[in-house]
Amino acid sequence: MAKEKPHLNVVFVGHVDHGKSTTVGRLLYDSGNIPEQEMRKLKEKAQELGKAGFEFAFVMDNLKEERERGVTIDLSHKKFSTQKYECTIIDAPGHKDFVKNMITGASQADVGFLVVAASEGIKAQTKEHIFLCKTLGVNQIAIVVNKMDTIKWDEAKFNDVKKQVSDLLKTVGYKPDETAFIPISAYEGDNVVKKSSNMGWYKGPTVVEQLDNFKQPEKPTNLPLRLPIQDVYNITGIGVIPVGRVETGIMKVGDKVIIMPARTGDGAKGEVKSIEMHHEQVQMAEPGDNIGFNLRGIGKKDIARGDVLGPEDNPPTVVSEFTAQIIVLNHPTVITAGYTPVFHIHTAQVSCQFVELQKKLDPTTGQVLQENPDTLKNGDAAIVKIKPTHPLVIERQKDIPHMSRFAIRDAGTTVAAGMCIDIVKKTA
To answer: Which residues make Cβ contacts (< 8 Å) with residue 131, sequence separation at least 6?
Structure first.
């Protein structure tokens, strides 16, 4: 069997209408990942709906409702192979709900492309998305300057956008001199897969070449084992089979483990009897592996979705309260102390109360703007103190970043996103 290529989760972000979906559609089409006849159908459909030119975007927006609105809603996962990587493309709509999926799905992005229209430059969402990428641990990004055809392939205009975006990257902590800036026309197909003949002045990589320029993300095998439970099955003759994805560390058959908080609130201990992946027994599992496993000593009623498994000698951290850095994305009015929405943290969904609004930050630099603000509104970044209504496992960003991120949801939308920066451990 050929050795599997390493896997890369890729997210495309950027302001609405700057051409993310078209870029992804073009990438998949020009690289032969979408059959010609499917493309023809999409083209006809686009014309029928009076949206000629949207056919590449349609590749990702394959929901009927979206086609009629011409807006990306769902998070579409598309597999895509380069010379070096197996990629999963997470098309992040410019709209608000992708954040929840990016944080809570198995779609933690390793690398990101920020799409900026050459004709428009930086917009509000451009800033927000860069800050989000940083907050959500997307450590490598590249900038795609799209719609070069609309500015007649002008190098000076490209350099102007490059400078604006570079200044923005610096404020958040990305290094502009280590970041690729790629001038493209997604609509015409320049520099996505095919080198452009319209921009002889550009010597750098195309979008597809840039994918292979990204460094292979390190698997966090050196961190303590953390496996959030997605489901628990009871299989006759075998016993209790929890399933989930290893976030950090390594899990081996024979390991003594503890699941927190479990029904008791202070954990359920057991031993790993067997591990199964893709219907085969394996001896060990590492970060990114989706597994089912059998535990000796733990009953079905003891554990549930949202619990987290770790080593008995380094149990997952259960908190009574925590401090978080958040960015408010989409709240209908303002957030005040006392607000109690649902937090989505790994596989857990727990109502948590905002106990204290400690600091308001500049969302593009992280500098403190105000101490103890009364309210937070859309676009604000802040440090807040949070109290869960039930025992909850969360880790500090500096200890186990993969277990620190969360989305805040209310009435069907993602209100805010953030990460845990400090904790108060729950005392038994």
So the answer is: 172, 327, 363, 364, 381
